[in-house]
Amino acid sequence: MADMDLHIKGGTVVDGTRAPRRQADIWVKDGKIAQVGGKASGFAKRTIDATGLIVAPGFVDLHTHYDAQIRWDPYCTISGWHGVTSVVLGNCGFGFAPVKPDFRERSMLTMTRTEAIPYDAMKVGMNWDWETIPQYLDSLDRTTLGINCIQYMPTASLMTYVMGLEAAKNRPANDAERQEMQRLLSEGMDAGLCGFSIQRLGPDSTQADYDGSPMVTDTMIDEDILNLARVLRARNDGFIQITQSTGTIKSDLIFLEKLAEVAQRPILHNAIVPTRKDPKVHRRSLAWLERVRAKGLPIYGQAGTVRTGFAFTLEHWNLYDASPAWRELTTGSKKEKLAKMRNPALREAVKREAEDADKRLQVIQAGVGGSIPSLIVQSDGGKPELEKYLGKSLGQIAQEENKTPIDVMLDLSMAGDLNVEFLGPNKGFNGQFMAEIINDSDYTLPGVSDGGAHTKFFTGGAFTTDFLSWLVRDEQRITLEEAHYRLSALPAKAAGFQERGALREGWAADIVAYDLNGLGIEPDWIGEVVHDFPGGEWRRIQRAKGYHAIVVNGEVTFQDGKCTGATPGKLLRHGRS
Prior knowledge:
The chain is α/β, with parallel strands linked by helices and 577 residues long. Helices cover 34% and strands 20% of the residues. It contains 18 helices and 25 strands. The longest helix has 17 residues, at 175-191. It is globular.
């Protein structure tokens, strides 16, 4: 055997195929796995001692929003710290191409709201040198990468490019526009796109546009979506990611089945999420998924396995947008938001909507931060006179001051110039229900990390480490073999990654070597604030513990948590190197 580039010796190999773990050495040459097991003759330029460690394929994250961050952060952290070696960009229909030069600014403003990506970081960190999708992919190909990526057609960008923003938001496409969108999607697929993506959350979208209106795809009619699906069917290529209002509304599920029938390509349904107490919620979704798979429809369920806290201020918060009154209250500049909070009529509207029997809104508010009375005042916003409220819940303060919890929240926010921070308490998660979503269906994927989005109050990119330490090690509800199949091989298959996601000879050498007992996240729950974005912007992060080595295309990118500076990542056009 010729000399090798890398030898990973003495580890316990969990290869991603569900095969039983075994102790074996791995040799790597020219970015690919040359041999698994046995003995190799020849010399390795670098050896990693993996004795006592798990050696597994790098993780594949299908739901990220690193579209801007990848331009200044080659490793797409925090995901890159947590063993993710490949990501999919352009989820939910959002992105930055195709885009006409005079719409670049508006594209960034959209992302400041719908995915809460800091504007100043985008403004400084992105170098716009594209308009069309082929130009965009060429630009991404030239970008220094420490991680692999594939790219959807962001459908909102496509519709806006063809129809103009106002028309795209207010009417269906006409025949000529549909034909042009098909042409541009096919052109993009020729250039290396992996399919297209959509967020369809209706007129009261939980992730609204910069001006508070629904995103373009939120009110997109069925035919405009099916029009694009026919391109994939004709090509027999690509897949579709779709985020819908809920996995339990019958009309939404009927449309998903129709979409799968028309496209005849994989559909990533977002998301299947368990509650803490009611197993009927996720079991109903799993039963539906099994029925459609039995019909031959290639639908996968992406499971929300993220356990993370929310610590937020009303300056940056956008996840109450399903409430029209909340959306109005928190849209606009800081000055405009403060003025709206002084408006009695708008305050009453917010309270009225919160008190109405809108179960959907109540579930959203509880699920993305906690119910408003349970929120805890975490910081005083730099106002010493508010220090007395620290550590108290809004419900407790409301009782003490004879106010409603919402009035307390708004009053404190105003007094702290929108810098008062609220923390959603950790009420726990149901490991049994979460494990059922994985173990009881062959077609579910852990994740929905939203990596790169909501960076000031959310750290979902750590989901891989949490999944392994929580459900595999601590609660022993999922086997190590099953976990690595779901974290790597199955998502790679669903998304059309070629020769990735498993430790097989001849396949790309994307590898993690980690100490299962030492695996962890720091700091826990809500992370820490760091100022490491362009433009002086800050974000919340959670670092990874326990990863001895992370390898991308045969090169070590992180060794014991420290970046090596290697940038072997690639844009995978058509899922291939």
